Amino acid sequence: MSTTLAVAPLTTQDADLLVAAAHRAAEAAGVTASVTVLDAGGHLLSFRRDDRAVLISGETSTRKAYTALQLDTPTADLVDAVQPGGLFHTLPTALDRPLLFIAGGVPIHRDGRLIGAIGAGGGAPEQDHAFATAAIEALA
Predict the structure, then answer these.
(1) pTM of the full predicted structure?
(2) Per the domain annotation, does 7 fall within a domain?
(3) Which end of the chain is more exposed for a tag (fewer CB within 10 A), N or C?
């Protein structure tokens, strides 16, 4: 008899909280940003781009979230893996949907299970990672 407990999925309410928290962190740092939240299946739950954020930040935030979700690892931890000679050197171009190995994407877990991912774009990679991390801490 299995005693596996169901883990609550990431909700739109969770996603909106994550986006708001990431934007507060970005605003506190003086950065205009885009933030994307995906559910465990890679589907968009929430997205917001600040009025003055560079347009490409919308795409980068989404790709960062997707990459973190697919590999269940913060994108900040994967940057070296795609360098020449790295474990994932050819991975960014090997798939139909491109991955993005720039800091700012972080997987979201609940009770040890992967339930989604968040991606932030618009600041320096280290800032984007901090915004996404701050959002996850606000969800806890």
Answers:
(1) 0.90
(2) no
(3) N
Write the DSSP assignment of 68-126 as a string of letters. HHHHTS-GGGTGGGGSTTSTTTTGGGTSSS----SS-EEEEEETTEEEEEEEEESS-HH
CATH number of the domain encompassing residue 135: 3.30.450.150
Closest CA to 27 of 131, 132, 133, 139: 131
What distance in Å separates the CA atoms of residue 60 and residue 36, rounded to the nearest whole number? Answer: 9
pLDDT, tens digit (0-9, with 9 covering 90-100), for 62-115: 999 999 999 999 999 988 887 787 777 666 666 667 788 899 999 999 999 999
DSSP 52: T
In a domain, 5, yes or no: no
**Checking phi first, is residue 51 left (phi over 0); if not, alpha (psi -120 to 50) or beta?**
alpha
Domain ranges, residue 112? 12-139
Q: Is residue 20 part of a domain?
A: yes
Domain count, the chain: 1
